[in-house]
């Protein structure tokens, strides 16, 4: 009798979960195990690169690797999961309701930017959360060159000084200067509620971010709360108004809303608490991976972050273990003790750190080469060749 593994999501975690599950099934000649991926489109959206130009090119097709490993793809958007009957409800390409049964489920539906934190975000702020919204921002930035020069036109406000906010802000000076007349003042402002630049980072990394920001002419407004975003800019909690034609929201991320269907297992940011096998606590046949999983990476109290770095390896472990559960094999406990940070800092370069204590190992051009290698090559799908996929989908194989 066939056994159905269904994976919801085709991001980094979902893609690798499918390939890893297929790998273990093939190694065990388990022809009775069927693997399906449900997602709106059969392509990997390379979200770590959405702050760059030419956003529409930040995709990679998935059907070549899925076909190589006999993974079925179902175009659709999941609206409900009944864990008791093990049934998924989704809307197909024609927006018609469909149902899919599963024996094992892997939730890999990713995360979303929160737009409910400040009035006016949805109406007046741009964001980099998805490829379509990033494309809207890119088009808007290009349109600024057609407007008359003014302080408002030449001011871009980035709300939030986390990873995405820093990469977007440091990308902007060179891009804006290339569009505007020589000698025009460019004002890139980062509004951050914390008291330090890069408050979640090590002092050593903070110092590099500050140096790059200073040399690029970026202004940081620290310990600052935003009251409202309008069509003219934003208003701070102090009542101060900052006029800007462009406001970019990057603060606040939460797990995809499908995690709300498993509320008794929800943890920080709506992510699901999981066992070392990545099986969701309290749900025998449901696994979670990537941004929706709150998983321990080691025995030192660290947990996987919402990054492709963690999603890729978590996906491989989740895929392996979900297939192992149908093959009566022992699961592999997820571990990811090595952690690096590689932060793009625009025309200044980049910074690369190692370890959870974020020791800076390289900066500027040297770090930029590492960043480009990671984002332009390493995180993309493998070559659609059977032996290559079988090797790379092994959760115990090195990938960095």
From TrEMBL:
<comment type="similarity">
    <text>Belongs to the NADH dehydrogenase family.</text>
</comment>
<dbReference type="InterPro" id="IPR023753">
    <property type="entry name" value="FAD/NAD-binding_dom"/>
</dbReference>
<dbReference type="InterPro" id="IPR036188">
    <property type="entry name" value="FAD/NAD-bd_sf"/>
</dbReference>
<keyword id="KW-0560">Oxidoreductase</keyword>
<feature type="domain" description="FAD/NAD(P)-binding">
    <location>
        <begin position="4"/>
        <end position="315"/>
    </location>
</feature>
<dbReference type="InterPro" id="IPR045024">
    <property type="entry name" value="NDH-2"/>
</dbReference>
<keyword id="KW-0520">NAD</keyword>
<keyword id="KW-0285">Flavoprotein</keyword>
<protein>
    <submittedName>
        <fullName>Pyridine nucleotide-disulfide oxidoreductase</fullName>
    </submittedName>
</protein>
<dbReference type="Pfam" id="PF07992">
    <property type="entry name" value="Pyr_redox_2"/>
</dbReference>
<keyword id="KW-0274">FAD</keyword>
């Amino acid at each position: 009798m066939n056994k159905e593994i269904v994976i919801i999501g085709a991001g980094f975690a979902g893609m690798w979960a499918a390939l890893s599950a297929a790998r273990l099934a093939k190694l065990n000649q388990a022809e009775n195990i069927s693997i399906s991926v449900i997602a709106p489109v059969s392509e990997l959206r390379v979200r770590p690169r959405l702050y760059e130009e030419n956003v529409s090119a930040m995709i990679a097709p998935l059907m070549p690797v899925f076909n190589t490993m006999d993974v079925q793809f179902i175009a659709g958007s999941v609206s409900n999961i009944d864990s008791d009957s093990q049934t998924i409800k989704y809307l197909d390409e024609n927006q018609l309701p469909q149902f899919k049964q599963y024996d094992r489920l892997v939730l890999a539906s990713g995360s979303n930017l929160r737009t409910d934190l400040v009035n006016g975000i949805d109406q007046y702020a741009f964001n980099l959360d998805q490829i379509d919204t990033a494309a809207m921002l890119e088009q808007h930035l290009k349109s600024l060159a057609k407007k008359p020069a003014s302080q408002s036109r030449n001011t871009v406000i980035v709300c939030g000084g986390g990873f995405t906010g820093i990469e977007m802000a440091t990308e902007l000076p060179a891009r804006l200067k290339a569009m505007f007349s020589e000698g025009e003042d460019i004002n890139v402002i980062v509004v951050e509620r914390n008291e330090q630049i890069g408050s979640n980072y090590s002092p050593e990394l903070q110092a590099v971010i500050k140096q790059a920001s200073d040399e690029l002419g970026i202004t940081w407004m620290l310990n600052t709360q935003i009251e409202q975003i309008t069509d003219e800019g934003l208003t701070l909690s102090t009542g101060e108004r900052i006029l800007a034609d462009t406001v970019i929201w990057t603060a606040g991320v939460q797990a995809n809303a499908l995690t709300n269907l498993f509320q008794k297992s929800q943890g920080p940011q709506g992510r699901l608490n999981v066992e070392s096998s990545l099986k969701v606590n309290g749900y025998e046949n449901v696994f979670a991976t990537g941004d929706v999983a709150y998983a321990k990476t080691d025995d030192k109290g660290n947990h996987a972050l919402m990054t492709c770095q963690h999603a890729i390896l978590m996906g491989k472990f989740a895929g392996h273990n979900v297939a192992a559960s149908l093959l009566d094999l022992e699961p592999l406990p997820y571990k990811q003790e090595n952690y690096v940070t590689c932060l793009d800092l625009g025309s200044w370069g980049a910074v690369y750190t190692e370890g959870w204590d974020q020791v800076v190992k390289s900066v500027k051009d040297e770090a930029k080469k590492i960043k480009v290698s990671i984002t332009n090559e390493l995180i993309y799908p493998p070559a659609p060749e059977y032996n290559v996929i079988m090797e790379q989908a092994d959760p115990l194989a090195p990938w960095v």
